Amino acid sequence: MSKLIGTVAGPLVPYWELVRDRVNESCEGVEPWKIIVYSCGTTLLVLTARDIFFSDEDTFTNRTKKEFFRLMKKIPFVKKRIAEEKKKILKDMEHSMNADVDGYVTQLPAEGLKMETLMEELKRYQSLAKVNWSDGTISGTVYSGDPELTHLMEKVYGMFAWTNPLHSDVFPDIRKMEAEVVRMCCTIFNGDKESCGTMTSGGTESILMACFTYRNIARERGIKIPEIIVPITAHAAFDKAAAYFHMKITHIPINEETRKVDINAMRRAINKNTCVLVGSAPQFPHGIIDDIQAISELGLKYDIPVHVDCCLGGFLYPFMEKAGFSVPVVDFRVPGVTSISADTHKYAFAPKGSSVILYRKDDYRKFQFFVQPDWPGGIYATAAIGGSRPGAIIAVCWGTLMYFGEKGYVETTKKIISTARYIKKELKKIPGIHVYGDPLMSVVGFGPAEGFKYNIFTFSDMIAKRGWNLNPLQFPSSIHLCVTLLHTKEGVADQFIRDARECLEELLNSPDAEAGGMAAMYGTSQSIPDRSMVAELAGCFVSALYTTNKSTETNGSVPKQ
Question: Model's pTM, two decimal places?
Fold first, then answer.
């Protein structure tokens, strides 16, 4: 072997000596510290270039932009200016949130409050809310609000307030109810006997669990950085999953007219690292149902799982046909669909903190489970993110499903979809308003029609003064109304159309109206090229939610008993 190496290396020796001599000559007379600095600097540049050009976690264009802005923000005067602006914005946000707050409790009371005093305090806190959601003027947020259902929830929650499904041996009642909720949901989405799933705390966790599952399956196949392929309109929880689970996410453009994902673009994006294809039914921004059939065909062709995000429409879609509405098939009847996320805390009218993630078969679901068999505390195994969970939420969810039954959900679906389609039809009649795509379910997204120049967020601010709270959207600038059972009350939909018409007429007659509130915030955020700055400003908002600064306190003491 050594003879063979010598035979191969022998002819290379003169070239190596030549290179060595040239390097030594170039370094002759150069101080050692310079050689070290140059070497380190060159290495840093090479590594930076490698990260920009060869990273698997984002596109080259986005990586280049991020790196450029990251370096720019390191310049001292730029860094200082950004810090000053962020401090000012945070202060303004805290002031806005605390305008009606008379102080914070910052330490435990020396003695516990008596029940009567505590209830008075809770009512005082409740009075901070200025928006009356029960009038049906809020987009989404509260999906029923029926007093009889509220009373049922109170009673059921009280019965199971101390339960925890982590201890299934202690609380077999909660285990049974959770299993039944999952099975009922599998049935309404046309799953067979092999279909299965788990309950979660909401749509975000359901989506996280689906992505976690497909990441684990991909890693079993040797894929180091699995890739999620989603429409640009898919819920941001998919981006969250990519960030949490060290995955790559690729956003696919949509057809601007239909607002559905571009199937050809999705096909071109598929590669050896793709672990799941995603479609929405419907998507959040404009309420459009993606072509799940076409996505499913891609999944079958390339042997890739397909996830349908039905979080928003989970308890509308399954009942639409029986309520008399045509709708594309998006559930387990579509052969390539391997999982579905659906929120029971939206149109199933269950309490917040309940959702389901469903799988075609257990061969998928088992990759969602987390098991640590070597912990000194015992074998630790959980189905989803949570360990201890509120069993009362599961019980109330079960109770709500049983309370409504199929007939009840068909009736509520008929009311909600009829109202949403009426609002869609009437909005289209208003000159200057463009409804995006053809929303078939409860969300109606709209913005300025072609040829009309006005700020849709100024419109939103104007209609907000009449009590309406709508959802702002971006890219393009638009807003939407998510219709709930509250909007089906007599006269609510007509009042919304009247107010929308009058506000738009007023805005068109005052094209130079000053942009403030939502208009200023969203208009500014969309014009900032460095999206990391927008993220930092959003972080300021999240930080402000937790403010208990003394500067905002005027009476932070606990009331005397």
Answer: 0.85
